[in-house]
Amino acid sequence: MSNKESVQQKLKSLWEIDLQNEAGLKTLIAALDDSVLEIRAQAYWILRDWRQKVIDDYVILKPDDPIEWKEIVTQQAFEHYANRHNINLEIFDIVDVYTRRGVKVNPGEIVYCVYASALTYGDDFYHLHDQLDPEDHLFPDDYNDSDNEYYNPSFEYACLTLDVAEHVAHQLHNKIALKLYSEGSGTMLFMIDGSTSGLPKDFNLEQWCSEQNLSLQDIAGNSGYGYSGSYFQDWKRITTIEKYLYDNRQHELLGQLWLGLIGKLAFVHKLTIQKTRYLPIVEVF
Asked: Phi-psi bin for 86: left (phi > 0), alpha (psi -120 to 50), beta?
């Protein structure tokens, strides 16, 4: 049997483990220290989802519930499950520690990290830091002061494959664009207006709307700000299109509008780990 076949067989066996059995849970916990990253990640995902299901089956927690209340009912859920299936309660403490800190990644192993771009802007400038430079800090615990944290891209997730990482980065970009728009700060216009060249030369508003099956005439008309220059007409039209996409919950297109006009609000960086770390590796987003 090849090494790849052996790994696939072990991955399959992890999915078949009985999670109502203490021995099965211990097998998954042991797999968190396996020599193969893919196996460690799979064990982590199974335990993480199992832990959450134990809580959800006992009580539905709301995001705005007090932290103290969440901790109390979570412990009650663990006790209820442990008593029902004759499982040592300490198992839950172990799983809790492992799932909170993430997947163990060893030196020499490769992950694809997803970062939120660093975004700074003012009345007369904007800067989008959408890639890592050699002097940038890779992870939050590398920051040595608040300025470093502010101007560096922010690490968000790690993935095992480039395809998954690119999907996660795409979704994160859309999420950030939606957040910036919904905050009502006019961020995009600050950035466009503050740039030296106005709208990107390679971005054609009419063509973009046509490609997205949007009628620029129906949505924005010929509105301007009382100026005759096309720049100001586009400025007003973009504001109108943003609002149209937001009001009609076309968040994917809203994100793509930001991508065309401003740039990537999230990006992928391939990284070879230099020292052992525990990372929030995701398989879907």
From this structure: left
114-to-56, 193, 228, 271, 285 alpha-carbon distances in Å: 29, 29, 43, 10, 12
- Low-confidence stretches of the chain (pLDDT < 50) are 144-145, 194-196, 224-229, 285
**DSSP calls for 24-52:** HHHHHHHHTT-SSHHHHHHHHHHHHHHHH
Query: Quick check: 24 and 17 in contact, CB under 8 A?
Result: yes
pLDDT for residue 49: 96
pLDDT of residue 225: 43
Query: Between the CA of residue 277 and those of 131, 164, 255, 264, what are the distances in Å?
Result: 22, 20, 32, 27
Using alpha carbons, select from 140, 107, 116 the residue that is nearest to residue 269.
116
Q: Residue 115 forms beta bridges with which residues?
A: 155, 267
